Amino acid sequence: MPITKRLTKALKSVALRRGLISLALFFISWELCARFQVPILGAIPAPTEVLASLAHEIVSGYYWRSWGTSLARILTGFVIAQILGVPLGLLLGFSRKAKEIVFPLIEIMRPVPPLAWVPVSVVFWPSAEMSMIFVTFLGAFFTVVLNIVEGIAAIDVRYLRAAASLGSTRRDIFWRVMLPASLPSVLVGMTVGMGITWCVVVAAEMIATNTGLGYLTWRGYVAGEFPLIVVGMLSIGLAGYLSSALIRRIGLHFTPWLSSQ
Amino acid sequence: MSDTALPGLTAAPSLTDAPKALPPSGLWGRLGGGFSRWLKSSSPWLNLLGLVGFLLLWQLLSRVLKVPLFVKLPGPWETVVEWFSPRPVYGISVFTIEYYQHIGLSSLRVFLAFLLATGLGVPLGLLMGWKKTFSDYAFPILELLRPIPMLAWVPLAILMWPGRESSIVFLTFLGSFFATLLNSWLGVKSIDPAYFRAAASLGASESLIFKKIVWPGAMPFVFTGLQISVGYAWFSLVAGEMLAGEFGLGYLIWDSYILVQYPVIIIAMITLGLVGSLSSFIIRAIGNALIRWKVKENG
Amino acid sequence: MGNGGSISVKEATKVYDPDGAKVLALDRCSLEIGPGEFSVVVGPSGCGKTTLLNAIAGFHELTAGEILLDGQTLSSPGKPAKPGSDRIVVFQNGALFPWMTILENVAFGPLAQKKMTVPEAREKALKTLETMGLTLIAQDYPGQISSGMRRRAEIARAMMCEPKVLLLDEPFRALDALTKIVAHQFLMEVYDAQKPTVFFITHDLDEAIFLASKVYVMTTRPASIKKILDVTLPRPRDYRLLASLEYQRLKAECQDAVREEALKAFSAGEREM
């Protein structure tokens, strides 16, 4: 369908109209809360102030360097988590013995909130940057491993049996059935992991460094430039949203059979 | 035989009826049923091997071989000794009141925030799933706020709320609110539309449809959501306490780091893990008790 | 039971407009179903049988045309029918509420309409289950019993409301052949006892002729009525009928009509609905 037609149709839709009304009301009441110093909510800088601050930041090199730093941390931690987590998850899903040995450890470590690792990580690693990346890595690692193990456990037995009766070797079954069948849950794990990763990086940047979007937000608080806090939050939100969307897009490319539904 | 037996080719039933939400494969799940069967299999020995191996390796690297990076970490042995010592060097062990005060305060904060998040998130989520008009209005705002990681709220939370206590509870609340809301919404969406039609066809009123279809139908997802949300609550609690707390387990970790009392960090971390698992175990138990039809269906 | 229940569908037309591509599902489809008649609608996949059923039940609005129940307008353009307990639907994949026991499910209707108190509804539900031979499963959850049992319980739930019209959308589709026979017998007994008007959708010609008073063969999309067969086989019906000459003749006639439409639908690439 041509884009113009789709657009006119969308504009006619009730859902969109309602959505726009509700967003408009949201921003207006936010502005009013700030203007009239409503208790608690009034402390949030008004949208107009935020826009002004955003206009100021968007041309500053510092703002974009913060983006770059945070993205680099996310990417490094996330990629290491995949490189170690995917094979480990596959091994645990494939071998019962390996699972029996490693799983209790994971079960014990997983409930410890990733941020609780920050001090240990800072003590352990020689540089602050490495400790940041380690904590980021942890945020995504457990999610990825657990999702693969669950994904493999949930594979329909009929596929394995069908492959076996069609004469597949074990190696074949692994590469051509188990791997693709667990792919959707790997991707879910990555998307969730990415969300957690952003959360961890932001907090770790506030706690333990003075670079990145998390610190930018924290600085807004410390330096009393309150609109900057909201600019930072929105930037982080956008960055997180974009990275999840990217994973989903890549995922769709690798799992074409899911998009037909 | 190799240990890489393909799951499913032989052990079919355990796979086909695997529960969809969180499998009770963890240590807690095993307490539920089949504990004696588990004891008789090779599992406990392999499990033990993993744990003991890990601890030995840690002790070896940090204390015996004194490998560069590891030497700065507290060894497992000294941590355990400190944890269970009646007269701990750094003032925190199972025999000190302070240890329980930290646990108590953190748990209280999580409990309060969790109650708030459940009280607001479940009704809102159910309403969004049930009434399209409502979700048309609420969804855009939700989508605007949701991508912002809960911990990015820290400075704003401190700014908004008077006093540290309310800002920490607010942060913890945020962490758990969105997970609860989304899962309650998904829960209603997961209900087969035929059930709504059937109820309408049998003459049920709106309020009865809510009571008899929306509420019980969404329940399994709601409880999955609550389990996830309590995890997120602990997650953001730690950040809140580290940045703004004066007490609590997160604060204890940070304070021990500043004071170079490293074994206490490990003790607090393990405690956090234990209390966290315990809280999600309690929620699962309550959920299973309430959703009898689902349990029976699987069993 | 002379409780009425005649349905007349007049020039029913339904246009679906999902994303701009208009699909004509029903095209001036008319039919008259007498009170207490067991009508069975057969037709190719996706032809619009379910659309018609949903319009009668009150789940969909018609684009044009009307539906009358006992001479009263049920649905007209702009004024869709409301779901009501005078027309109860038994769904394709079953819609027993999985979180209620069979007894609670069966008692649901009268309680929902506030026609009975809880003990009354319970008593009547137990009695209904007993006459239908389902007492043993009263305390089970739907997830714990066989699919054949579930279908029967769902019919019991519908009959508790003493509906004028029973709307069945391929209710036995997922059952195996042997379970189906039992389910047919069950439905026949229920029908003979209460004589509601039945609107039954199926693909299965044997099922259609065995159960029906009249078989309506629908054309492929856009659907209208292609052929009406009067099934004059005596009631109560018995499985031995399947071997009778009259049955064979009806089936052949029906098959010719259906086959033609099925071929058209197949070459148009209809998806299973």
Low-confidence stretches of chain A: none
Structural class of the helix and strand makeup of chain B?
Answer: mainly alpha
Can you tell me the CATH class of the largest domain in chain B? Answer: Mainly Alpha
- Shape assignment of chain B: globular
Count the E strands of chain A. 0
Shape of chain A: globular
Q: pLDDT average of chain B, as an integer?
A: 83
Provide an overview of this structure:
- The complex is a heterotrimer of chains A (261), B (299) and C (273).
- Chain A is mostly helical and 261 residues long.
- Chain A has helices spanning 3-12, 14-35, 47-58, 61-94, 96-109, 118-124, 128-153, 157-165, 170-208, 212-222, 226-254.
- Chain A has one domain (58-256): MetI-like fold (Orthogonal Bundle).
- Chain A is 82% helix and 0% strand.
- In chain A, helix 4 runs parallel beside helix 7, helix 7 packs antiparallel against helix 9 (170-208) and helix 9 packs antiparallel against helix 11.
- The two termini of chain A are 19 Å apart.
- With 299 residues, chain B is mainly α.
- Chain B folds into 2 domains: 25-73, no CATH class; 97-298, MetI-like fold (Orthogonal Bundle).
- In chain B, 74% of the residues lie in helices and 0% in strands.
- Chain B has helices at residues 12-16, 27-32, 35-40, 43-64, 76-83, 97-130, 132-145, 154-160, 164-189, 193-201, 206-244, 249-258, 262-290, 292-298.
- Chain B is globular.
- Chain C has 273 residues and is of the alpha/beta class.
- Helices cover 35% and strands 23% of the residues of chain C.
- Chain C is built from 7 helices and 10 strands.
- In chain C, strands 6-7-8-3-9-10 form a 6-stranded mixed sheet, with helices on both faces. Chain C has a 4-stranded antiparallel sheet with strand order 2-1-4-5, covered by helices on one side.
- The longest helix of chain C is centred in the last third of the chain and has 23 residues, at 245-267.
- Chain C starts with 6 loop residues before the first strand and ends in a 6-residue tail after the last helix.
Distinctive features:
B: 299 residues, mainly alpha, MetI-like fold, 2 domains, 14 helices, 0% strand, C: 273 residues, four-stranded antiparallel β-sheet, 7 helices, 23% strand
Record the SSE blueprint.
The complex is a heterotrimer of chains A (261), B (299) and C (273).
Chain A: H1 3-12, H2 14-35, H3 47-58, H4 61-94, H5 96-109, H6 118-124, H7 128-153, H8 157-165, H9 170-208, H10 212-222, H11 226-254
Helix pairs in contact in A: 3-11, 4-5, 4-7, 4-9, 4-10, 6-7, 7-9, 8-9, 9-10, 9-11, 10-11
Chain B: H1 12-16, H2 27-32, H3 35-40, H4 43-64, H5 76-83, H6 97-130, H7 132-145, H8 154-160, H9 164-189, H10 193-201, H11 206-244, H12 249-258, H13 262-290, H14 292-298
Helix pairs in contact in B: 5-13, 6-7, 6-9, 6-11, 8-9, 9-11, 11-12, 11-13, 12-13
Chain C: E1 7-16, E2 23-33, E3 38-42, H1 49-57, E4 64-69, E5 72-75, E6 87-90, H2 102-112, H3 118-131, H4 147-159, E7 165-169, H5 177-194, E8 197-202, H6 205-211, E9 214-218, E10 225-230, H7 245-267
Parallel strand pairs in C: 3-8, 3-9, 6-7, 7-8
Antiparallel strand pairs in C: 1-2, 1-4, 4-5, 9-10
Helix pairs in contact in C: 2-3, 2-4, 4-5, 6-7
